[in-house]
Amino acid sequence: MEPIEYCRRKVAPDGSSTYYALLFAPASARDGLAALAAYRAEVLEIPREVSDPGVGAVKLNWWQEELERLAAGAPRHPVSQALLPALRDHQLDMDGLSEVIEASRMDLEYGRYPTLRELTLYCHRAGGAVADLAWRMTGSTGLEAAPFAHDLAMGLELTRMLRHLRRDVRAGRLYIPEDELTLSGLGSEDLLSADQGDAVRSLLTRQGNRARQFLDSAITRLPHSARSAQAYGLVLAVLHRRLLDDMAADGYAVTERQVHLTPLRKLWLAWRTARRPHKVHPLPESSST
User: Fold this and answer.
1) Is residue 230 classed as helix, strand or coil in its secondary structure?
2) Angle (CA) 112 117 118, round 5°
3) What domains can be seen in the chain, in order of their start residue?
4) Residue 112 φ/ψ, nearest 5 degrees
5) Each residue of 110-131: pLDDT tens digit?
6) Which of 265 and 129 is assigned the larger pLDDT?
7) Threshold 0.90, pTM exceeds
8) Are the beta carbons of 150 and 131 closer than 8 angstroms?
9) Ramachandran area for residue 172 (φ above 0: left; ψ -120 to 50: alpha; else beta)
10) Considering only CA atoms, which of 228, 106, 222 is closest in space to residue 155?
């Protein structure tokens, strides 16, 4: 299997959000964007795949060594092999890729975050560096796209955390600031209770609103002149914002069931976003753009 095919199968199967975001991305950047998303997934999956932190640490050390091989032009893994031409073609600094390894290490060592400050650091490491490299692959300038990429990464990470809350809590990880949990009079076990009370719904609503604010901010901070080039990130912002809308309409019952957008709905939203990127607005009443 070709390295890029490995990446696409891992993170962009037919009907996925990443599939549609790549579909409308600039053709010259698609392979690199797929490789970046696959690298993030490959590294962040490690804490979920291993029960022994020591084994996880060994795997993360291997990936750190793989980044050194990538920098030397001799990567071994299909994901890093797919990344190599993209990094070279766009003359990108790959130092930020180590941040994803550090995010995974935080999951292995802690898995819980005392305040929003620590959770924000995790989100930055898990998605910020990848988002930063992603906009650079499109040829946009930092003044146009860097603020967009930062807020987009935060919004995407927070949305994913909320959507996979049940899976993560069961595995002993919590991506809700512990101080907010305590102020709500709750423990992590309350999040999995079959009887979801007002305190749980209020807490989850707060998390959803925070994610939505970051996605709206990302859209606001992206100038119209940069939107066509940033169609990949803009489509992801719109799809995840709509996912949050559906979670909110379902009462944030994320520990009972997982909300999905149908492939047809994703295609429609992605097509309209890419066709009229200047029409995408942050206000809820404009979210159907």
Assistant:
1) coil
2) 30
3) 3-286 (1.10.600.10)
4) -140, 150
5) 889 999 999 999 999 999 888 8
6) 265
7) yes
8) yes
9) left
10) 222
